[in-house]
Design brief:
154 residues; four-stranded parallel beta sheet; Rossmann fold; 12% strand
Amino acid sequence: MIVPKVLFVCLGNICRSPTAEAVFTTRAKQAGLDVHVESAGTSGWHIGEPPDPRSIAAGEARGYSFQGQASRKVIRADFGNFDYILAMDDKNVEALKETSPENYWQRIQLFLDYAPSNTVREVPDPYYGSGDGFTRVLDLIEQASDGLIAVLSK
């Protein structure tokens, strides 16, 4: 059986994409789905750093683990190695397409496309906002995770 590989991508890989990695890993496991999950950023500003403490606090309050996560930058090999490259917003989709060979563009999508009942298309960056931004990010990521799990389970 082929194990799907999913890469979640945001700008710095310290808030949104590590949260998506933690949430999706947990929910996929609960659904009995065998999947390989990682996260990365389109910038290299935080390489090697753990996720933002506010992301960790919000996620752990809902039972998600960020254990072992460290920020990394998207590399060219990722485009061939991952089946789904799911960006948190349009700017990161554009940045990914600038880096990716054109034959892999179909793998690059907005993550919230997997939450079609949601009217929001992008996961907002909570980094400079208020504390409740991190719980809003979790809400959106949980919805999209459930949608992606439904697709991968078919």
